[in-house]
Design a protein that fits this description.
The chain is built from eleven helices and 17 strands. By secondary structure, the protein is α/β, with parallel strands linked by helices. The longest helix is centred in the middle third of the chain and has 23 residues. It comes from Rubinisphaera brasiliensis (strain ATCC 49424 / DSM 5305 / JCM 21570 / IAM 15109 / NBRC 103401 / IFAM 1448).
Length: 485
């Protein structure tokens, strides 16, 4: 059977069944783009000098709102994906590392829950009582067995979402994915997921919908169509000679000194970024073709910072420090664009710090789904910011990563309030204080100069640990006494 036929039939049946929303005022549609491992500095709206070409994201930024202080709830994938789906900090269910990372260092990591509980009300489940049809495509990585996969977490359609955090067959067919039928040999995964998304859009009819396109790209393995790789190889060859790597903090022993990439010039990574951007452009164009643009909210973000310290270190997050797997800004500050037609001022910029925990309540608020008795969430609705980008939110943001990351990062927590950010290390309790307005690269530790500010932020962070039932490092050897707050 042709690969689209079964999906198209299923889509038609789903999206043509009358729903309870028929008599209600038309609801906005949602298209949510989530990219894997894309750094804040990897897109041209945030970085006009980036090596990568993202014209469609520029178009989206010009039509909507760009957030300069958008954050992931965690420096690695699964926890942030949990926060996007639930509006909660992942620490509340001990989902504090990628599923299921258990690297040890000086100590053992904190206990890890490697599944999103079925009791959670996901974004899809929150929207369904409002008559929404829901489709998920791409990377899921939120549970080890089928009962935890998208089709059992509120999504009517699941294309490609299962337990793995990277494409097991790589980016070209055959995919070795139980939720994605193989295409012709050599078919490209990012394009295929986009084809499937467009096919779903063709069948939506008059029902409101949530289309959640969660790209596997730009996660390793680093693979892309050869013509694009060659394009960027030529582009890289014209760059002036420069140092590509510098020393990075050594947290756990390695065979060689850990390095961090300080320049963007990786041809394959650049090609992967372009395929993602092209796919987003295709979806935006198809919404326009179908006459859906004016009633469709578009969201775009990433699950953690760019990969800059391991596995080929394909990108640079400068001026931010660190990258994926680190609680420095390079690991948690994300590209974030939102377009709400008729509401967000075109080309606007919001500097208020926000987080992935805010997306669930925001979309529910826009859809008027808050009246359905949803559980309490940690995030807040961003509707006031989407109307007036100068709006501020007087609240701290928190991070908790009690693990040794595959990318070399240390176990630690953090809190940001206003311009101030405190980082607390879990091996010994040492703290670092940074003023992000003056020092976005976290180069100047101000802890010794402002002990009062350190104590104030520590109290906030420690009270939050209690509230979310945070767990910490465990002893690796009998004589050890792990630090506790």
């Amino acid at each position: 059977m042709p690969r689209f036929r079964l999906l198209a039939t299923f889509t038609f049946l789903l999206f043509t069944i009358p729903s309870i929303s028929e008599a209600r005022e038309a609801k906005p549609n949602f298209v949510f783009f989530l990219v894997d491992d894309l750094g804040y500095m990897d897109i041209s709206p945030n970085n006009p000098h980036t090596f990568y070409e993202t014209p469609n994201l520029e178009r989206l930024a010009q039509q909507g709102m760009r957030f300069t202080n958008g954050y992931a709830a965690n420096p690695v994938c699964s926890p942030t994906r949990y926060s996007l789906m639930t509006g909660k900090y992942p620490t509340r269910v001990q989902a504090t590392n990628f599923f299921a990372g258990k690297r040890e260092g000086r100590f053992r990591p904190a206990p890890l829950n490697d599944r999103m509980p079925l009791s959670e009300v996901t974004l899809a489940e929150a929207l369904k009582p409002q008559g929404y049809k829901t489709a998920f495509l791409g990377k899921w990585h939120l549970g080890p067995t089928e009962e935890f996969w998208p089709e059992n977490q509120g999504f009517d359609i699941n294309v490609g979402g299962f337990q793995r955090g990277l494409p097991p067959g790589g980016y070209f067919s055959p995919y070795k994915n139980p939720r994605l039928e193989d295409g012709p040999k050599g078919e490209h995964l990012t394009r295929r997921l986009t084809d499937e998304a467009i096919n779903i859009l063709d069948g939506v009819g008059d029902e409101p919908f949530l289309l959640y396109l969660s790209f596997y790209t730009v996660h390793t393995p680093l693979q892309a169509p050869k013509p694009l790789v060659e394009k960027y190889r030529r582009k890289a060859s014209k760059l002036p000679n420069a140092v590509e790597f510098e020393s990075e903090e050594q947290v756990w022993p390695t065979d060689s000194e850990r390095k961090v990439r300080v320049i963007q010039n990786h041809p394959t990574y650049a090609a992967m970024v372009e395929t993602m951007d092209t796919s987003i452009g295709r979806v935006l164009d198809h919404l326009e073709k179908l006459g859906l643009t004016d009633n469709t909210v578009i969201c775009f973000t990433s699950d953690n910072g760019g990969l800059s310290t391991s596995e080929g270190s394909p990108t640079s997050n400068l001026p931010f420090r660190g990258g994926k797997g680190w609680v420095y800004e390079g690991g948690i500050r994300e590209p974030l664009l939102i377009k709400w037609p008729g509401t967000t001022p075109a080309g606007s910029v919001c500097e208020t710090p926000i987080c992935s925990i805010d997306m669930h309540p925001t979309l529910c608020d826009i859809a008027d789904a808050e009246a359905e008795g949803l559980p309490e969430r940690d995030g807040v609705s961003l509707v006031s910011l989407l109307k007036k980008p100068e709006t501020t939110l007087d609240r701290p943001l928190f991070w908790h990563y009690p693990h040794y990351s595959n990318q070399g990062g240390f176990p630690g927590g953090a809190v940001r309030q206003g311009p101030w950010k405190l980082i607390e290390r879990y091996e010994d309790g040492d703290c670092h204080l940074f003023n992000l307005e003056d020092d976005p690269g976290e180069k100047k530790d101000l802890a010794s100069r402002f002990p009062g500010r350190v104590n104030e932020l520590k109290q906030l962070l420690h009270a939050w640990y209690v509230d979310v039932d945070a767990r910490f490092l465990e002893k690796r050897e009998a004589e050890q006494t792990p630090w506790r707050p």
